[in-house]
Write a structure and sequence with these properties.
Elements lengths: L1 E5 L4 E14 L2 E6 L5 E5 L2 E7 L4 E6 L2 E6 L2 E6 L8
Parallel strand pairs: 1-8
Antiparallel strand pairs: 1-2, 2-3, 2-5, 4-7, 5-6, 7-8
Length: about 80
């Protein structure tokens, strides 16, 4: 599954991942390979990424959106802090 995390200023992440967990406006949810297509708004919170090597990164975000379509995940946020390990 491919993930891209973007702010208006820059691309924060682009690569293959096992999972991504996001703070959806209706509650936190996790996206895994084969997830059904979805578009959802995101609230302030933490995006948790597990890459294909099992490494974990966390991004503190402000509001945004996520789109999942054919194992391509796009996270568009107004602002995000540098990843923490």
């Amino acid at each position: 599954m491919n993930l891209t995390i973007l702010t208006p200023e820059k691309e924060l992440y682009s690569g293959s991942v096992r999972s991504v967990k996001v703070p959806g406006s209706g509650g936190q949810f996790e996206v895994l390979s084969g997830h059904a297509p979805i578009v959802s708004s995101l609230d302030k919170g933490t995006v948790r990424v597990v890459d294909t090597n099992g490494d974990r990164k966390e991004y503190a975000i402000e509001k945004g959106f996520i789109e999942v379509l054919h194992n391509d995940v796009s996270v568009l946020v107004t602002q995000a802090d540098a990843p923490s390990e």
